[in-house]
Automatic annotation (TrEMBL):
Single Gene Ontology MF annotation: fibronectin binding
Covalent S-S links between cysteines: C29-C39, C32-C68, C42-C57, C200-C206, C254-C294, C428-C686, C456-C460, C471-C483, C480-C519, C485-C494, C496-C510, C525-C530, C527-C562, C532-C547, C549-C554, C568-C573, C570-C601, C575-C584, C586-C593, C607-C612, C609-C655, C614-C624, C627-C630, C634-C643, C640-C718, C659-C694
Superkingdom assignment: Eukaryota
Gene that this sequence comes from: ITGB1
UniProt protein name: Integrin beta
Similarity comment: family membership: Belongs to the integrin beta chain family.
Coiled-coil ranges from the UniProt annotation: none
Pfam family, one: Integrin_b_cyt
GO terms (BP aspect): cell adhesion mediated by integrin; cell migration; cell-cell adhesion; integrin-mediated signaling pathway; muscle organ development
Residue intervals of the PSI domain: 20-69
Amino acid sequence: SVATGCPNGRMLCIQKIGSDCIKANAQSCGECIQVAEKCGWCTDDFLKQGESKSARCDELKSLITKGCSKAKIENPRGSISIDKDKPVTNRKKDVAEKLKPDQITQIQPQKLSLNLRSGEAQTFKLKFKRAEDYPIDLYYLMDLSFSMKDDLENVKNLGTDLMREMQEITSDFRIGFGSFVEKTVMPYISTTPARLLNPCTSNENCTSPFSYKNVLKLTENGQQFNSLVSKQQISGNLDSPEGGFDAIMQVAVCGDAIGWRNVTRLLVFSTDAGFHFAGDGKLGGIVLPNDGKCHLENNMYTMSHYYDYPSIAHLVQKLSDNNIQTIFAVTEEFQPVYKELKNLIPKSAVGTLSSNSSNVIKLIIDSYNSLSSEVILENNKVPEGVSIKYKSICKNGVVGTGENGRKCSNISIGDEVSFDITIESQKCPSQGKSETIRIKPLGFNEDVEIVLNFICECECSKGGEPLSKICHNGNGTFECGACRCNEGRIGRLCECSTDEVRTDDLDGNCRKDNGTDICSNNGDCVCGTCECKKRENPEERYSGKFCDCDNFNCDRSNNKLCGGHGRCECRVCICDANYTGSACDCSLDTSTCLAANKQICNGRGTCECGVCKCTNPKFQGPTCEICPTCPGVCAEHKECVQCRAFETGEKKDTCQRDCSYFNLIRVKDRDKLPQPADQSYPLSHCKERDANDCWFYYTYAVRNDTMREVYVVETLECPAGPDIIPIVAGVVAGIVLIGLALLLIWKLLMIIHDRREFAKFEKEKMNAKWDTGENPIYKSAVTTVVNPKYEGK
């Protein structure tokens, strides 16, 4: 595993790559290369004192880091060799020349040899191409119980009709016929003498019950098929499920009796009922499991009363072993049952049979097209520790992996598909022998033979020296740079017997002095010699005669061992060139102290460990260029520049005496002043103001700590005086505008007030109520006189 995070902000993470090789504690090269594909064995003499021979086994990069020569590392690799690679056949049906079945190749290559090393996968490509006009053997297995009476009539002409239809698919077609009813024991049939002769009722003439009969061996003669089928008679039984599984088993295993060739094999199973399977035989007192062998005598199955029905798994195995593809032609009622059965039997199909089997030819052709358009790869049992993965590259570039990697669908005749097959071994077989596995497409007679050779020993072991003097006077075999001890001997050089491993005398040799732990508590005492413990991180090691040294407990800088600029040996840092210090954190390189003026620390300090140490405490910064307490350069030289350039300022009277320490150079405008990018020495741009509020611009530079230069713009920038007329006009206009605004506001307020008063008057007038009585002192101006003599005439 690889560390994916750095705890506690650590910048250096420990990687555990290769730790599996260390943990294996391999004692020989052969043991080492079986641990993992990344492990190698060093035959070089590179081990330090205190390291065991198992330290020779590690990841290749780690071995080289430890000092092993790359040429001395044993790291055998796996390989693939193709032993038989006959190309797939490009066969056309209309070609006059006809090939025999064994001359047709649909799968390539046919034989390979793989050299497998533990943990290293080997991948090869397998091609499959459906050959045109490929021969077909079809065996029609029919239920002849009484319910199939009308179906038998329609099957009597099946031979010639099916021959004619199959000519569109292949010119080499053979057909056979078989029938089944049920086991000939109670309670499946009636065993009374009369019923054994004729199991049917209602005056029907039926044949005696039987389990399975091979009526016609596979033949090219369709007329013979029709003739023999026409002679068949219906039989009968008592229960609804039939004994079809007994018949399927015999058809699968009796290849000679059926006449199967190594071509496409189709078995059409026609029935209108369910099926008995393993365990149902107990009802008739039959307890022996089906043995999966052929028991045909005179084309009749003779052991139905002796062996139980086969199980579904047993049928699957035999059908697969004999490359038989099954088509279940069943009535609508039993479709769900047989569809479930189809899911358990690879390369099988289910078709709906009409009540009288009138559609059987179309059903067979449709089912054959469905089966032949799909290729499914399977392999036999693989050795323990070996795994196989499939990846399919199907039609139109469709890729399948996992279980879908075993198959391709919708394949037409002439289509070519391929499979990437990966085989990996995790360990060597106990016997170390070669193993053979086979991969084949279901329902086809061709397969691929794969011979697996396991790499269990290193090449260097072949040159081993048995009973070598190096191994303590012959107590082991010296091979691959180390001793492989004989039984009962241990130690780096097989110098110790297992009986004397733990003794006080030997333990005393593993103590640095009497007061210390055995092997400094960092190892084990083996035969009086310390063998240091291994660390989780393969880069970390204990070493030394008493395991008192290590390469990981040195001083650190920036959380890195030896600052990342050295190696740790026996807890002391050995620094790389240009570095020094206990943690190799002191660089002797002075380039980091170089200032912009190419001086070391601006001439104001010394360079120590790549960092400037300023001699004057008032200066600081990476190159002693900053002085926080010093007056600014511009303010410091303002008065002198002012007096020399413009003869003004506080020092104009003492200018010659106080201000002659720099060279003054006048320029016409600011664009002519030197720019910092153009100079190789410190340069300051200044902008200052005099007593008349005029601005002047200059630069101050120091060359080589002695020569000072001042560039100054010879023209002052003074602010212009105020224009009186616009100011006065503006004030007068402002006063007039303010007065007019005030008058308008006053007028507006008066109008609002008058309108409010008038409205109030109108309201009071409307609300006034006057007294309607007469005035007592009022006298009318009109006098009325009555003529006494007037009579109204």
